[in-house]
Please model this.
Amino acid sequence: MGCSLRPEYLTYHIYQQFGILTKDAISYLIDAMDVLSNGNNKIQIHLNDTYYFDEEQCFKNVLKHDFTLPQRVQFHAYLKFLIHHKRKISGIDQWMRVIHNLSENTVIDGADEVAKAIKSIEKLIPHSNNILEYLKDSNDQIDFFHSRQVQEERIKACLITNSQEWKDEISKIEKHPYFKGQVLFLFEFAGILEYFERHGNCDWSSADDTEYLNGFIKYSNGAGKVFQSILNSSSDIDFLWERAVLSKGNYLIPASAFRWNLLSTTIKMRDFSWKRLVRLPPVGTKEPESNEWKTRRFFIKAVFDDNLFDLSNLTQSLTTICKTLPDDWRQYFIANPEFYSYSEQGFIRYEDESKILLFKQSQQNHYHVEMYSYDLYLNMLSERQKFDPFTRKFYFEVKSGDEFPCIIISGWENDGANYAIEVFNDFNDVSNKSEPYKIRFCNRSNFKVDNYPNTIQSIMDSNGFQWIPHLSGFCKTVAVKDSAISVIENLSDQLKLLS
Model:
């Protein structure tokens, strides 16, 4: 069989034997060549708008075999339209707009998905030259494509056929490089989705139309400006968008047991992105999952609805919104853009308010820090010039769940012994869940209490420190960071007198 498959020996019968080429496939290729043929000129251009489908560029990519799976689907839809309607191009712009939106916002990862998409398109081809009226008036099921994107296209069909103003506004936000046609959440924010799901249409009054349009424009402008500003790198504006939304509520997406994702816009991951958050669950998703996702999405809406939100001065208005801190764990993330910078893939571990870790990568077996101590380091200790007699301070990241991430203040030697202060959250001490700052003073080369001079033991006792054998050091636990810094300052001042 080996030599028979060399190119010079390939025949139609061999193609047929392996199911590679059939008579229908050959007929399709001939029809495709016919509709693409344009004499000695370049490919004929039929579409007025190249955003949804660039005919010339797509054809070049086809020749180079360099195009995405959604683009393959789009190219097939384009060819079938021309073949079916015999080059009568009326309606082709809206057809390719709908196909673009459906294919770009449905997961198409392999040949099976491509085949399913093509089969679905085949059913739509008879209606392709009047696709908006079909979507508007028909309740026929559209297979394969994401049910919410299909619903979105039905709503758009109702609105686009309603007025030119609707058409212009929808087209403008659809072409945003971040959304790529997926804007159902804006219809949800404006109350349009609720109306459509209740009535099956958008046949409201003229006064209602003005109100719905104004609402849609408001949220479209907000989303368009925000995501345009942070599309390249939200770190340039200190992750203000993420922090502003977090000030309204916990928007984080669940990843696995105790793992959540911050959706930093600097991260390019399909399943952990703002686009994933604003995508509504499939039609028919039951509570509580459906409501949980809606609650998260509406924290975005809350930012747009905030009286402080100002498109004309986006950075300043988001900065002002971030100054209102909630009385829970979120305040630490809102106050510290460095938290988002540190968590390079956006993952954190949240068990409860007493145990929150920031992962540098995706898992706990990579470097990670602990929320309370890292906040203390960033905002208080790192800004202090010195803690005499100690000469060095740094944050100690860990890779293992058996170690505590901590602040280390070191560099003081006394009578040949090297001493240090550590600040960490002792997860093993369940009795102190409300006191996340454990301050440990230790001799880094000797772990027995009897080897500490009486002068040091006296200082420990006067400052409320107790010897904890399993931690090999004098320890004190406090509830708030102001108290923690005061304890460290007082301890340093007294130890300095021994130098």
DSSP finds 21 helices and eleven strands in the chain. Confidence is low (pLDDT under 50) at residues 1-5. The radius of gyration is 31 Å. Residues 206-230 form the longest helix (25 residues).
